[in-house]
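Dear colleagues,

As part of the handover before I leave the project, I'm documenting each prediction I ran so the next person doesn't have to rerun anything. This entry is a single chain, and its sequence is reproduced below.
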Amino acid sequence: MLACSRSLNSAVVSALRLLRSNQTAVTGQLQRPLSTQTDGEVRIAKVLKEKFPAASSLKVVDISGGCGAMYEIHIESSEFKGKRTVQQHQLVNQALKDEIQNMHGLRIFTDVPKH
């Protein structure tokens, strides 16, 4: 019985290590490895790259677990210079007006490059 228990504990520890190496804990949520993107993330990133060609940084993450209901967008572009945060977010919302219709929620973080 003791050998069986050790074997089970070893298997559980190995499985947890594997999960930990493939996923990162972020604010209580598990995040997919960075090498994979959902179709929705790719589609939204493409739209934003076309609308904001001067963007120096763009990150789109499906925070709904992969079902496409909620996204988080981080975008840094010189096109936001001189605009208030609400105006920057309005530009992003306008660029994604067709995609937003199918979403439950959207988190937007915008910034102007520091250099």
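Strands lie at 24-26, 29-31, 55-62, 70-77, 105-111. The longest helix spans residues 2-22.

All the best with the project,
I.
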